[in-house]
Amino acid sequence: MIEPAYPAKPSPGDRVAIVSPAAGLPELYPLPYELGLRRLTEDFGLVPVEYPTTRKMGTSPQERAADLHAAFADPEIKAVIASIGGSDQITVIPHLDAELIRANPKPFFGYSDNTNLLDFLWRQGIVGFHGGGVMTQYGRPGAMDPMSESSIRAALFTSGPYELTEPARITEVNRDWADPATFDAEPATEPATGWSWHRADRVVEGRSWGGCLDIVAWLMMADRIAPPETYEGCVLFLETSEELMSADEVYFTLRCMGERGLLRRFPALLMGRAMAWSFQKPLGPAERERHRAEQRAAVLRALAEYAPDTMAVFDVDLGHTEPQQIVPYGGVVRVDGPARRVTVHY
């Protein structure tokens, strides 16, 4: 296994690739996409470059792989940013030219279905960045969330330590991207409940691996992950998507990681605050809290059975959360239990 290395960062004025390796959803929802591009240009000083499949639904895995090859191979492109996630990026990975991408390492930003590509980059020795989607974080109605923006700026432009912090308020209920009125104001927020710690009696520092648990399950089923010993001493980070995995599904997936001899390799786990609302499952406040509590219990059950010494931090704002803080995929993460601090290295 190649030790992941951080690729060079872009600077304001640089060209960055905007790609849709999971799904061309900008075609269906142009409002958050165009807003995200505008903020990348006006607020971040970058020059977005689109590719043939960026805003086109129904493209083939080979076509999306070709866009990634073009983005990584172009010396004028200094970073690659996903427009959004999707559901079939796993079919793109076999078409990627690993040698080409290893020879042209660049920061890649994305999450959700982009866990597939982040894991691929990890296996090529390239640190990626879990988070920072064009339509979701840059294209947030009204304004970017300040905590999300701060983390994205640090991950995009700087190197070194960055402390993840607990937000005062969070957003759980979204509005229709097809309605222009959605973008007239920021989404409603509600008080955050904070993080909770399990076995916080030590300090763990290691390379990170994980991502969206829905996709990690697929990676195991497709036999895309490395041998379990590869992850020894790494910091695991996981989160769940708008599919709202049930507590049973969470437990069963972690159980499979345990049976594979994988779960116990991680001395620390960062568990993202569970997404608990979607348009398909518009849960009320009490139901949302119940959903999160049941997921936490499922994780603790799996840890008790397969990784009893692993330290865990629950409800961290990463992945499908708002605000969202960037986690370097393959980068260094320090989890300080006694001090109740989590520091990532961008």
TrEMBL record:
**Protein's UniProt keywords contain Protein transport:** no
Superkingdom classification of source? Bacteria
Q: Which GO molecular function, any one, fits this protein according to its record?
A: carboxypeptidase activity
- Check the record and name the SUPFAM superfamilies matching this protein: Class I glutamine amidotransferase-like, LD-carboxypeptidase A C-terminal domain-like
Q: Which InterPro entries match?
A: Carboxypeptidase_A_C_sf, Class_I_gatase-like, LdcA_N, Peptidase_S66_N, Peptidase_S66C, S66_fam
Supply the Gene3D superfamilies for this chain.
Answer: Class I glutamine amidotransferase-like, LD-carboxypeptidase A C-terminal domain-like
Q: Which organism is it from?
A: Kitasatospora paracochleata
Chain ranges of the LD-carboxypeptidase N-terminal domain: 16-131
Protein name (record):
Muramoyltetrapeptide carboxypeptidase LdcA involved in peptidoglycan recycling
Q: Which CDD domains match?
A: Peptidase_S66_mccF_like
Q: Name one Pfam family in it.
A: Peptidase_S66
Q: Which UniProt keywords apply?
A: Carboxypeptidase, Hydrolase, Protease
PANTHER family from the UniProt entry: LD-CARBOXYPEPTIDASE C-TERMINAL DOMAIN-CONTAINING PROTEIN, MURAMOYLTETRAPEPTIDE CARBOXYPEPTIDASE
Family per UniProt? Belongs to the peptidase S66 family.
Look up the coiled coil feature and give its residue ranges. none
Q: Which residues form the LD-carboxypeptidase C-terminal domain?
A: 205-335
